[in-house]
């Protein structure tokens, strides 16, 4: 019984420590404040910022980066060169994800009720610049340029995260920041994985972020200024 009691205590402590570690801080190092009502993992705004004063929004091209050591981990144990991921494969995947990200966010902002989407920043206008980045991309079975008929089966697509900053176009001041991770849960069911299925999952994540972004902007707009 004593041993069981000790195990329960250790498990409880581990759970509490994990919960504390995963909770986003109330403020960031650069002075942004956490907004509680958000579907993102975290949404931060600059204290006192009035987002309703911004009538235009400019969307920067989306950047994409892989998880650290992703290429090395993917190629570990792949004896045949035809099954290895090449640097040019990474470039192609990044381009596909970046183009999809740009498309989803552009479509979301084109008809936004509070902000007019503009292609170029114009002097004298109150412009909110959005800079999205898809980071820590971890695709379990990436599509490669290998020749021949090959089939790969996985139980999960993988995961990736969004980091989006909102800045004042004129001053460059950071007004807000969004962080969110999307992960395809491992359902222990093998599925054929290829470029089409991978992009279907990427688009599913991006659609969620697109909807969350609109909701986050609405929350930020209605709650401005944040004190």
**Overall pLDDT confidence:** 79
- Give the CA-based shape: elongated
Q: At the first level of CATH, what is the class?
A: Alpha Beta
According to CATH, the fold-level topology is Rossmann fold
Order of helices and strands: HEEEEHHEEEEEEH
**From the alpha-carbon coordinates, what is the Rg to the nearest angstrom?**
21 Å
How far from one another are the termini? 52 Å
Judged by helices, strands and strand pairing, the structural class is alpha/beta
The level of helicity is 25-40%
Could you please describe the fold and organization of this structure?
- The chain is α/β, with parallel strands linked by helices and 227 residues long.
- 35% of the residues lie in helices and 25% in strands.
- The protein is built from 4 helices and 10 strands.
- The chain has helices spanning 2-22, 70-75, 87-110, 195-223; strands at residues 33-34, 42-45, 56-59, 63-66, 116-118, 127-139, 152-154, 158-168, 174-183, 191-193.
- Strand 1 (33-34) and strand 2 form a beta hairpin.
- Helix 3 packs across helix 4.
- The N and C termini lie far apart (52 Å).
Would you summarize the structure shown here?
This protein is α/β, with parallel strands linked by helices and 227 residues long. The protein has 4 helices and 10 strands, in the order αββββααββββββα. The longest helix has 29 residues, at 195-223.
């Amino acid at each position: 019984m004593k041993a069981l009691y000790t195990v329960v205590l250790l498990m409880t402590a581990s759970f509490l420590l994990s919960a504390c570690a995963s909770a986003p801080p109330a403020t960031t190092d650069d002075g942004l404040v956490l907004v509680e009502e958000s579907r993102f993992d975290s949404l931060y705004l600059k204290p006192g910022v009035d987002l309703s004063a911004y009538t235009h929004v400019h969307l920067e091209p989306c950047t994409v980066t892989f998880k650290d050591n992703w290429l090395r981990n993917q190629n570990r144990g792949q004896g045949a060169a035809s099954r290895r991921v090449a640097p040019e494969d990474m470039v192609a995947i990044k381009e596909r994800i970046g183009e999809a990200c740009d498309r989803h966010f552009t479509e979301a902002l084109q008809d936004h009720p509070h902000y007019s989407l503009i292609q170029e920043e114009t002097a004298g206008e109150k412009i909110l610049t959005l800079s999205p980045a898809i980071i820590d991309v971890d695709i379990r079975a990436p599509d490669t340029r290998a020749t021949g008929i090959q089939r790969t089966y996985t139980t999960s697509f993988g995961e990736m995260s969004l980091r989006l900053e909102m800045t004042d176009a004129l001053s460059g001041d950071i007004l807000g920041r969004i962080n969110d991770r999307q992960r395809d849960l491992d359902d222990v069911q093998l599925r054929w994985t290829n470029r089409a299925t991978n992009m279907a999952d990427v688009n599913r994540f991006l659609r969620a972020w697109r909807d969350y972004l609109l909701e986050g902007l609405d929350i930020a707009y209605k709650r401005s200024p944040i004190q």
